[in-house]
Amino acid sequence: MSVSEAELKDAVKAALVEVLVEQRTLVREIIEEVIEDIAMSRAIDEGMATPVVSREEVFAVLDS
At a CB cut-off of 8 Å and minimum separation 6, what does 27 contact? Predict the structure, then answer.
């Protein structure tokens, strides 16, 4: 039995939709993790572009 490219494409789409619907929580968690990773990466990049401060300066700001 031979399956056409269009039939295969439709089957893959249907399977993907089914997985996304049935595993909605898992998909949401994966997307949240990706967003958190992007935010952390941006925060690190921003931190690398700022001047270095001493530990004492950080705690002085936290204590105020």
Answer: 20
pTM, two decimals, is 0.57
| Per-residue model confidence as pLDDT tens digits over 43-58 | 999 999 999 999 999 9
Q: Is the dihedral of CA 28, 29, 34, 37 positive or negative?
A: positive
Distance CA 1, CA 57 (A): 73
Q: Are 20 and 27 in contact (CB under 8 A)?
A: yes
Distance CA 36, CA 4 (A): 41
Q: How far is CA 15 from the centre of its chain?
A: 23
Residues 7-45 have pLDDT tens digits of 999 999 999 999 889 999 998 999 999 999 999 999 999
